[in-house]
Amino acid sequence: DINDQNYLKIQGSPPLISRLICGCTLKSHSFSNSTTFNELKQKRNHKLMSNGQKKLKTEQVVEITIGSTNVSILCPGKRSASADLLVLMDQDQLSCVFDFLKTDCKDNGKAKRSYKKGGNKPQKDEEAD
Questions:
Q1: How is the chain split into domains, by residue range?
Q2: Origin, by domain of life (predicted)?
């Protein structure tokens, strides 16, 4: 609750928001590697840098454009470039952000790398040495 306005915090790794947006029940589902999520953060960071301030001393609201909708993003005073997205709790703005993130849903549940069962046991090919 900032200036009598509420903001929704959208984080990349917790699965709750990605489950809400994508309707997926996978445990590992997240937006941390999502191209659309990272694009939103880049738009916010670009807007911050275009304002001419390298470091913010107080919270600041920037407007980014997604499609034809202006979306208000709250930037905290510290580490704003790496902070989570804080989107104004407005139905049109949230719908726009969710629809934008939804375009990347099918790829977000995939593992970042392949895993082997059994820990450090050698594979059958390696035992022949």
A1: 7-109
A2: Eukaryota
